[in-house]
Amino acid sequence: MEPNMTTTTQNVPVYQNFIHGQYMPNQTGDSFAVKNPATDEVIYRVEVADEAIQTAAIQSAKQGFAIWSAMTPIERSRILLKAVSLLRERNDELAQIEVLDTGKPWQEAQCVDVQTGADVIEYFAGLAPAQVGQQQMVGNDFYYTRKEPLGICAGIGAWNYPLQIACWKSGPALAAGNVLLFKPSEETPLGALKLAEIFIEAGVPAGVFNVVQGAAEVGQWLTGHPDIEKVSFTGEVGTGKKVMSSAASTLKDVTMELGGKSPLIVFDDADISDAISAAMLGNFYTQGEICTNCTRVYVHRNVYEQFISELKTRTEQNIIAGNPMNPEVNLGALISKPHQQLVMDYINKGITEGARLLTGGKALSPDSAPNGYFVAPTIFVDCSDEMTIVKEEIFGPVMSVLVFDDEQEVIERANNTHLGLAAGVFTKDIQRAHRVIHQIQAGICWINAYGNSPAEMPVGGYKHSGIGRENGIETLDQYTQTKSVYVGMNKIDSPF
Ligand code: NAD
After folding, report:
1. Does residue 377 share a domain with residue 276?
2. Within this chain, do residues 330 and 353 fall inside the same structural domain, yes or no?
3. 159 and 277 in one domain?
4. Whether residue 291 is found in the same domain as residue 254
5. CA of 244 to the centre of ligand 1 (A)
6. Which residues does the entry assign to the active site, renumbered to this chain (predicted)?
7. pLDDT at 2 over 60
8. Closest residue to atom 4 of ligand 1, CA basis
């Protein structure tokens, strides 16, 4: 399926919105540019979902819902599994889109982004036919419950894992019989269009997965629309609050996958090499643009010097920044120039507030990608809990290392934040590992591991990091509503 490939004066393709099984031109002609973060070049433009597109999207979603929700779960499952096969077949083509849109390394996108997206659709396709209601006798009467879809749902995505987020939202939504209007981030809008093409090719009826393009104003239209029953949002805490208050005006159900400032706690009996691997993965993978990152690394005083010395060596020796399409490169470019500046501002604040810079601390201009928005992997040590870099989400390759002495002390310090997305503990003492994790206020926790997020495991935040969950069995429930049906078996006993 060919998108509208009209080109602009910049000689780049222009992608349209994807409505009712095909690309649809808007009426205003408004479009926005998308840049490759590794080159600073405009690579394509995308038409904004104007009023004509918005009206068509809702009409189409209603038609799509009538067909899709009437199918049996096993029929829906069969179609979704075809989409999974197509995603896997096109892994490399889709991974390349993600690299060009996000700036992340090919070596990651090629084995993570598409596959973890496909896994989740496959998981929910498998679960859907197994969803059952309840039945209970009440005297001679009885009631039963039906798990019914919600209707039209909206998904709003962030830019760090664009295709994966589109899959994580569409998988459970569609498996449960809903339709989804998806708005990707305006920084990374292409992957969702490719997913829409794949769904159609697999046999998903037109209107079941529409893609509307644009920034905040298109998001606001979705969150306020009276015909939309639920919004699943991934993005910043501040935006999440706006989305939730807008959704409240029409009492929409919400799922909120928001930011974090997660702790990693390394006890003195830990496998230090593994703990360093986890700290590096949880700060430098995807150039630090991962919501669950362990940006506060608490290390026990007995192993602190050893930890930071090996961490410095490995960071300086093993990280290669450059053209993200080069398979050797393992540190890509940040999403945009303003974001690069924001990360640099945080680094400068760290220095001003007295953190000791162990390594990094500067923007990079690698030979193979001199115009990209790179920031060197940066480690601050001897940090204190009050520093801005320790308190606020930076969303870049910036790690803060802190020293601790005592288990209870570190638990309290780890919990001393309004965020609660993730946490990790490294220790060989299994009782301590569970005891500590059980006291940590976070929704996604790892023991002697960090960052793994299989489709089977529910993920989501405590406190301001989120509401609801993605993945895992419970997410399917969050895309259904329960209908109770009472069945009278006796003659009605009435005073009238
Ligand atoms: P963002 O909040 O700026 O934007 C997210 C999406 O919201 C975009 O599609 C944007 O166009 C849209 N949007 C902006 N204003 C809106 C409004 N008023 N109403 C409706 N939609 C609106 O976030 P971002 O910069 O794209 O992503 C980075 C953030 O996402 C980080 O904070 C990160 O932690 C978080 N994140 C969380 C998870 C998770 O699963 N918890 C996953 C990935 C990213």
Report:
1. yes
2. yes
3. no
4. no
5. 13
6. 257
7. no
8. 235
Mean pLDDT of 104-112: 98
First CA to last CA across the chain, in angstroms? 65
Q: Does residue 72 surpass a pLDDT of 70?
A: yes
114-166 pLDDT, tens digit per residue, is: 999 999 999 999 999 999 999 999 999 999 999 999 999 999 999 999 999 99
Residue 50 beta carbon below 6 angstroms from any ligand 1 atom: no
pLDDT higher than threshold 70 for residue 9: no
Domains: count for the chain? 2
Q: Order across the sheet with 230-234: list the strands.
A: 22-24, 17-19, 209-211, 179-183, 152-156, 230-234, 253-257, 466-467
Q: Is 189 in the pocket of ligand 1 (CB under 6 A)?
A: no
Tell whether 269 and 247 lie within a shared domain.
Answer: no
This prediction has a pTM of 0.97
- pLDDT digits 0-9 by tens, 430-472: 999 999 999 999 999 999 999 999 999 999 999 999 999 999 9
Binding site membership of 215 for ligand 1 (Cβ less than 6 Å): yes
Q: Is residue 293 part of a domain?
A: yes
Catalytic residues: 257
Q: What is the mean pLDDT of the chain?
A: 97
Residue 495 scores a pLDDT above 90: yes
User: What's the CATH code of the domain at 29?
Assistant: 3.40.605.10
Same domain membership, residue 328 and residue 200: no
Cβ–Cβ under 8 Å, residues 487 and 473: no
* Burial environment of residue 25 by CB neighbours within 10 A (0 to 12, 13 to 18, 19 or more): middle
73: domain range?
14-259+465-482
222 token code pair: 């979705």
Instruction: Examine residue 7 and state whether it is found in any structural domain, yes or no.
Output: no
Last residue of a domain, one of 447, 473, 490: 447
